[in-house]
Amino acid sequence: MVNRVIKSDEEWRRILTEEQFYVMRLKGAERAYTGAYWNHFEDGVYHCAACGLPLFSSERKFASQTGWPSFDGPVNSAHVYTETESVGGKTSTEAICHRCSSHLGHVFNDGPHPSGLRYCINSVALKFERRSTNEPAPVVNQSECLIME
Ligand SMILES: [Zn+2]
């Protein structure tokens, strides 16, 4: 279980930068090719910029050429949840931090094998931590791939 973090907009405004607040609390999007991580391929873990929960890891990051950091799944399926909404006949699936309910980006069905998913995430919603050489890689949780099949 993940302990939830619940804060008012007022509190989030104090913690987050203006751009983080716009993306993470108002469901905005950073411009493609402008974020810190779209072309970033170091070994480590990407945490939620608002609450610090580990969300994605370099093992599941791939070069999507979209201008946003892209992953074929979260580091733990309990840390990121998705919500699908339909607006005017167009459906979109939102990726949300499970701990603080911050908007992270969107999920698309054109990702690489085996999950077939592409988590298209705003760099500004992430905080990268490099893995030290003596730290083992996290166990990649593939269970959400099975649900998709
Ligand atoms: Zn969070």
Helix and strand topology:
Blueprint: H1 9-15, H2 18-24, E1 44-48, E2 54-57, E3 61-62, E4 70-71, E5 80-87, E6 90-97, E7 103-108, E8 118-121, E9 126-130, H3 143-148
The structure holds zinc ion.
Task: Describe this entry's structure for a reader.
The chain is an alpha+beta fold and 149 residues long. It has a single domain, classed as Peptide methionine sulfoxide reductase (Metal Binding Protein, Guanine Nucleotide Exchange Factor, Chain A), CATH 2.170.150. Helix content is 13%, strand content 30%. It has three helices and nine strands, in the order ααβββββββββα. The chain has helices at residues 9-15, 18-24, 143-148, and strands at residues 44-48, 54-57, 61-62, 70-71, 80-87, 90-97, 103-108, 118-121, 126-130. The strands form two sheets. A six-stranded antiparallel sheet has the order 3-4-8-7-6-5, with no helix packed on it. A three-stranded antiparallel sheet has the order 2-1-9, with no helix packed on it. β1 (44-48) and β2 form a beta hairpin. The chain is globular and about 40 Å long. The two termini are 25 Å apart. Mean pLDDT is 91; it is low at 143-149. Zinc ion (ZN) binds at residues 48, 50-51, 53, 97, 99-100, 102.
Percent helix range: 10-25%
Count of helical segments? 3
- Second CATH tier, the architecture: Beta Complex
- Strand and helix order: HHEEEEEEEEEH
What is the β-strand count?
9
| Structural shape | globular
> What's the CATH H-level homologous superfamily?
Peptide methionine sulfoxide reductase
| CATH fold label | Metal Binding Protein, Guanine Nucleotide Exchange Factor, Chain A
* Estimated share of beta-strand residues: 25-35%
| Structural class assignment | alpha+beta
The ligands found in this model are: zinc ion
Residue stretches low in confidence (pLDDT < 50, at least 5 long) are 143-149
What is the mean pLDDT?
Answer: 91
